Amino acid sequence: MKGHGTGGRFGWVVVALVAMAGIPRGVFAELGGPDEPLAYLDDDVPSASGYQDGYHHGRLRPAIGVQNYEVMRANRSHPEWSDGLGWTYNHAPNLAYWNGRFYYHYLATPVGEHIPPGVTLLSTSEDGKQWTRPEVLFPMGFWSEQTEVREDQVRNLVMHQRMGFYVAPDGRLLASGFYGVNDGHGMGRVMREIHDDGSFGPIYFVKKNTTWKHGDFMFPDYTASDDEGFVAAVDAFLDDRIRRIQWWEEHWLEPDIEEFVGGLQPVKSEEGLDPGKGFNFYTRDDGVVVGLFKDSLATVTTDGGEHWSPLVRLPRFTWGGAKVWAQRLDPGGYALVVNPTHSAARHPLAVTTSDDGIRFHGVAAVHQELPPKRYWGLHKRPGQQYVRGIVEGNGNPPGDDLWVAYSVTKEDMWISRIPVPIRREVQGPVADDFDAMEIGGVVTDWNIYHGPWHEIEVVEGPDAARNSLKLSDRDPYDYAAAQRVFARAKQQTVAFDLYTESAHGPLEIDIVTGAGDRLVRLRREDGGLSANDGTKDVAVSSLAEGRWYAFEFDLDAEKQVYRLRLNGEVVASDARFGAEGTPERIEFRTGDYRAEDDVQKQKSGSEDVPGWDEPDADEPTMLSTYFLRDFRTAR
Questions:
Q1: How does pLDDT run across 293-326, given as a tens digit for each residue?
Q2: Which of 142, 199, 291, 608 has the maximum number of C-beta atoms within 10 A of its C-beta?
Q3: pTM beyond 0.85
Q4: Selection from 337, 547, 384 nearest residue 461 by Cα
Q5: 278-298 b/e (C-beta count within 10 Å ≥ 16 → b)
Q6: From-to residues of CATH 2.120.10 in the chain
Q7: Pick the CATH number of 431-634 from 3.30.559.10, 3.30.420.40, 2.60.120.200, 3.30.450.20
């Protein structure tokens, strides 16, 4: 993170920034208390990322074994392949796990942020990888308004919500949404029940905004329901002092807001801090509940949410205007998932961990890939953003994995499965033959980037004799990607077998440093294979479709050179690395390497000026398919 402990080599920066900000140095003496509820104490920081600079991965090591799954790929021309609507602004997911299924809801508009109409959509999954087509959970909101010439005009509302789900004490699953935006205006908060069979109960208003002056409310008050259990479930939520703070931005102009949020300040503090947005909380082992907000703001409560400490900006943790997520892990300890830079761009998505929920150490990338934005839309910032996990009490999937949901460039919806314990390094040799892995299941210890048009899966191999890792791609603006981290060593051998079934685009294979510097670069295209010698690419062989090839690299980090053998024959000898460093992972991708942001900005530099849609983004390309097996390393 950009904030650091005073004991590290960046300590003088922190002391200077603290002095400039007018924060007393004594703040560090109460780490874990109201003045500084949590801190990042290491010196490893992500590379700054901004529009048209930096790296999508932030030059961070990946959290080993993360599975990135695309829940919904936006498609304007073919709604039947996406959300059923063809809408291209999709954002702000919420997540729950209930009765053996994941529930994932998010808001959507046709083009851009807060541009009506808007709906809330719901998708579900048994395994977190294969998702149902989204269906409308909260429909469009309308009201009739008289214009100056006394003609009725129908107007639309957008949906907005900081909270998605609530599992009530009796086990009911309630879904929540807000008709309006997070400025205190709008019609109000609604809830409905999701039943065991997947059907939905009626929609009711739970908290109506007194600022609404545009006529009747669309739905009845929840107290009018003849389902006593539903009413009791809503009442249980309203009695929960902590969870209801998730609503406060959308109701902060209400007369009862201070009582509703348990004394959390609904206006700017004396220090001039903005009111907290995007509330997330976690409970420490000592019983203290920590509340986190956008822009590195935090608060604590020791009495179950009856009173909260004043908001403070964390001096040793940095994140910007995107949401942050923190939670307790099943085996113990804590994780915080964040965009760890303070810039207009929101990438990478990263995770850091703590034993006590106070002192956080180590940061690793969760989602490193960033495809170009395909459709213009207002405020569609690049990156993996608005991350949410499963709120305490809203279910717990099998296993110890940490699951988080987010949007990418407010266009496509994603989820990540993060193995726990969270690791950044590998010790000893690697030997992955994929036979021990479940077909269609988790690709153990591999980081995969999988979507409906670019798939990574363990499958029965092309010769039907053994399992293989299959990479397939038909996405015109994205690719399939798989990474395997291995141990650092000055000299080692890296080997694998590769099979090309069909190739209608490039396949790139990189061996990189921990920071992602490309030491060895291979590219298969049009049947030929090239490899780098320094910064120059040289043709070294050909690769035919329909047969296996054995690749073997001898890597020498001391001399910064490598040798490549293909089916036992040396095709590159003493070839120079493309950068300085020690090899640490291998990356396979079915497309061109990318690093810079493509934000579709106009020459004026304003996101408010309409841009363009990328051509042919809605149509799949011809399918490229590759198989990989027997990946191994040796010193």
A1: 998 999 999 999 999 998 899 999 888 889 999 9
A2: 291
A3: yes
A4: 547
A5: bbbbbebeeebbbbbbbbbbb
A6: 11-418
A7: 2.60.120.200
